[in-house]
Amino acid sequence: MSTTISSGRRRTGLLALALMVAAALLAVSASPLPAQAASVEVVFDDMEHGNPFGNGWFSFGGSVGGGGIGPNAADLPPGTTGSFSLETGWGSGGTPGFFGGFGRTSLTDLSGTAHFNFWINPDAGVDAVLELNLQEDDNADDTITSPEDDEFQFNCVVSPAGPCAVSGGGWQLVSIPLADFFDDNSFLTGGNGVLDPVPASGGGNGQLVNVVVAIVSNSGADVTFRTDDWVFTDTPLVVPTIIDDFESGLPAGTDGAGNNIGFFTFSDGSPVSISTTTTPPAPVPGSAAGNTVLQMDADVTAFAGMIHAFENAAVDTWVTQDWSAREGFAFWLYGNNSGTDLFVDIIENRNPGSTVDDAERWTVTFEDDFSGWQYFEFPFSDFTRKEIGNGAPNDGLTLFEVHGWAFGTLNTGGLKTYYLDDVSLFGSGVVADLAVNFAAGIFEITEGTTGDVT
Length: 454
Hints:
Layout: E1 3-5, E2 41-45, E3 57-61, E4 66-72, E5 85-91, E6 97-108, E7 115-122, E8 128-136, E9 150-159, E10 165-166, E11 172-177, E12 182-183, E13 208-217, E14 223-233, E15 241-244, E16 252-254, E17 260-267, E18 272-277, E19 293-299, E20 303-309, E21 328-336, E22 341-347, E23 361-367, E24 371-379, E25 384-386, E26 404-410, E27 415-426
Parallel strand pairs: 9-10
Antiparallel strand pairs: 1-24, 2-14, 3-6, 4-5, 5-14, 6-13, 7-11, 7-14, 8-9, 8-13, 9-12, 15-27, 16-17, 17-20, 18-19, 19-27, 20-26, 21-24, 21-27, 22-23, 22-26, 23-25
């Protein structure tokens, strides 16, 4: 079943975050994409109070430096619908070492979670270790005392090369398995040595009490960054991969065999056209000024739509993309609430050596029963094979060689205009076993000689 997010500005944990980040080596989109929601999501703090010290936060100085924390209403993760992040800055005048730190006290049941996720935007030049400490109650008294309780640490290295976060790299989403936190007995020396923050009411011996970040500078340079949306989940949050954001137009051409590639339309003869526009009826929620979307105008009797057959830079070769590591297909769509039947297709693998469009089609259908912008997520498991009589392979949806995607409509009952943006891949999927196709079932090769099996 697809996931939809209605057109209003909405925040549910990290579900409403926008999400392509340069520092994560992904392109920045002009409009936002929600992060994949985990099935278990425990928000430790989304910073929306705008008042850290009034909501359990604290800070402390270090042996060689100091600093502090505060709200920031100007620098937020790209496309977020929130209003505040947390800013923090530390320095020592150039001496490396322990600058101090900050944290928050908030009793939190982490039952069913396995990852700690947060956004961070470190300034250029930061070269430090952020010692992330989870302090848990192990004697069910809802406080942290030594030697009764325990602390688990992960060292997040922030530097020009990362690897936890890249200084000067913009907003980055960090997801850390709880299994990577080690039992740190330098401050809290007791506990049972197991990270098990579950309250006594849930069958445990105590829940999470504090999350504390200690700032250790490697070079003596100041350590300044913004952070947002601290969330514990069962699976890592994943930023989507943009396939098409339409900011560079709609390239179109043909390959060497005369197949249409790039963006083009199809129909039963009904009129259909595509273009780009920066003035849809309303902006995509959270999008930047001047954001470009695709516009499709169609007056359809039976069927019509548009295809993006993936092209190379010269727009003369039909190329493929590997989608096998992702969970599904997503996009923003502006609806007319017309009741029209709509569909999206995945255009998958072709026969070996093919020079024609014999790509296998996989489709999912839905209804134009909404008005304005709505975000759709369709897991690949929702797609079913579509037979169009083109001699396509019939070997399952493997996603190793995806040739393109399509959006279409059935009878529209008159002229309809649809707008799309940020076609993307979301989530992490299970990679299917690689399948091999051959051009023929039998190859005759004389004994003692060589031959080609294709």
